[in-house]
Recover the amino acids of this structure.
């Protein structure tokens, strides 16, 4: 287990073993700085989707060492969480570009066309007609999908929305920011420089607080906090896990309730032992790998994320094998008439795209086709 300080990692890698384990944050160190020869016969990449950014240092480092490896296996539950463009980097590591091309530009040109753009600046791409089927056909011979629900005893999953309503004056402030990219308040001005910044500001406002131009937190309403209180009371002392996105979400939740953030191994142990009535978790820091299924079966999304990968991975902290409850409940706090509704719709659409990929390469263990 190559963890700890650089010296501890080097010591572990220098000992004879059949299998070495290292976290993805140290992949670049292993290849470029450790001084350990990269002569591993096989590499297994858990959470392959964390290498989907072809410009990241970890991707570039592993790609550099990839020709030395005889066999590579990638594992992920979210292969195309943000669309089929995610697949290129993942398969570039697996087959060195044999199926989807050696260059990202080649892949874009063959299967996509520009979607959202501003002049010559292209912000997103969408698949060309027939591109999805063509991509699936290219990768089918080396890709296999197995759904947990088909092979494991999984609990039921109940997903619901808890809608909150803004007052007329709160709606007007929301629309003012959306319309003018500027919101004037007694505590300071809020300015959104562009569409991406506006999206973030509207998400904050839907949650009940927003950062001013000078970085101060301006509280706007307590609708979601009131709803969260109702849900915690309705849980009747059963542990509740709350997912938040912005720092001021966490600050306001802590001010209102007695909660504990899931950060350390001790936090995880105490949660799973049932010692934390209300825990809070941030999807970006705790979306992958944590086993929290022993501590509770209710997850409340205080604020949503646009990332399907983080959304699904966070839900999977509770909805997974070993969950003692027969039903896992996922509740989304949605401020009606706001960007919350658009994010939830976008997550559903991305989920459908990813599901199409999974279905296309799904294993049929009853036939000999996948042997």
């Amino acid at each position: 287990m190559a963890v700890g300080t650089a010296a501890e990692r080097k010591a572990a890698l220098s000992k004879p073993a059949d299998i070495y384990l290292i976290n993805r944050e140290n992949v670049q160190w292993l290849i470029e700085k450790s001084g350990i020869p990269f002569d591993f016969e096989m590499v297994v990449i858990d959470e392959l989707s964390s290498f989907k950014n072809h410009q990241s240092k970890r991707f570039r480092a592993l790609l550099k060492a990839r020709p030395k490896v005889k066999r590579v296996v990638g594992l992920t539950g979210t292969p195309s969480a943000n669309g089929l463009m995610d697949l290129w980097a993942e398969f570039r590591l697996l087959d060195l570009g044999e199926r989807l091309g050696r260059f990202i530009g080649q892949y874009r040109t063959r299967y996509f066309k520009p979607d959202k753009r501003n002049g010559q600046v292209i912000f997103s791409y969408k698949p060309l007609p027939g591109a999805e089927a063509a991509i699936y056909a290219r990768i089918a011979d080396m890709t296999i999908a197995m759904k947990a629900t088909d092979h494991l005893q999984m609990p039921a999953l109940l997903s619901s929305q808890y809608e909150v309503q803004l007052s007329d004056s709160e709606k007007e402030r929301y629309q003012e920011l959306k319309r003018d990219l500027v919101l004037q308040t007694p505590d300071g001005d809020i300015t959104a420089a562009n569409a991406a910044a506006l999206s973030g500001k509207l998400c904050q406002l839907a949650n009940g607080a927003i950062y001013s131009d000078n970085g101060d937190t301006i509280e706007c309403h307590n609708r979601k906090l009131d709803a969260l209180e109702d849900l915690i009371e309705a849980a009747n002392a059963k542990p509740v896990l709350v997912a938040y996105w912005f720092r001021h979400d966490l600050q306001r939740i802590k001010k209102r309730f007695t909660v504990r953030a899931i950060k350390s191994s001790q936090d995880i142990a105490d949660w799973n032992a049932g010692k934390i009535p209300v825990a809070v978790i941030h999807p970006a820091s705790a979306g992958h790998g944590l086993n929290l299924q022993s501590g509770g079966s209710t997850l409340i999304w205080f604020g949503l994320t646009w990332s399907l990968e983080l959304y699904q991975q966070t839900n999977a902290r509770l909805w997974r094998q070993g969950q003692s409850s027969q039903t896992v409940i996922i509740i989304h706090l949605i401020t009606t008439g706001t960007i919350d509704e658009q994010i939830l719709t976008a997550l559903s659409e991305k989920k459908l795209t990813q599901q199409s990929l999974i279905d296309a390469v799904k294993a049929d263990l009853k036939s000999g086709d996948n042997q």
Remarks:
- Residues 367-371 have pLDDT under 50 and may be disordered.
- The chain has three domains: 38-145, 154-166+222-336, 167-220.
- The radius of gyration is 23 Å.
